[in-house]
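New to this. Explain the following:
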Amino acid sequence: MSGEVLILDDGSGGAPAAASLGEMLAGVLGATPVTVRGEVDHQGVRLIVVPSDDDGRRPHASSVAGRLLHEAHVPVAVAPKGWPGQADGRLHVLGVAYDGSPESRVALGFARELAERADATVRVYTVAVPARAVSVGAMAGPLPQEEDAREILSRHLEEAVADLPPSLRALPVLLDGDAAKEIAGAAEAGVDLLVTGSRGYGRLGRVLLGSVSSALIDTAPCPVIAIPRPAADPATDTGG
């Protein structure tokens, strides 16, 4: 796999973690790690790695790291400040946020590539909105349409996992609650890296963070890769 992995060194406290992550991901992708100290052309770049801010959260939008994170045309990885790296320098378990949208399908495809190259396993996370309780006399339960929605999500999740190669030993995980909170919590159980798509509106072919991807970068215990929106015919891209 040709190309480069750009590693932003902005002199912040998170820069060492970004360097460790970038070197590891460059090895997985068969790419050349290149340290940069400012915004650069993305031509020929496979991935950009940026540090979190000094509070361990996603970079501020006005910073170089923040602009790369929000506007890059290639996947962007964010390393939490203080992330110790993998003890053996390898990825073992990848997590993917998946809701069946085109953005999440692209994220799943990228996670598949990483996992195949790293000989890692994959956990695919789908989160259902909590069912509202309704009471009729002494009876309470979820509304029928909400039960149907959860069943649909579960079916889409199972189908997505079934399409992955058996060698990835992919595990479907259906959660209930706040999407970012539940996925970040599940990642505490041995996930080395999370992959998430961008929000479903705005400029095509760019990383544009939505509420879930933003919250995952802020709260996940491991690095997070945000994938640009799927590219499309420029004539259909209104720049949203």
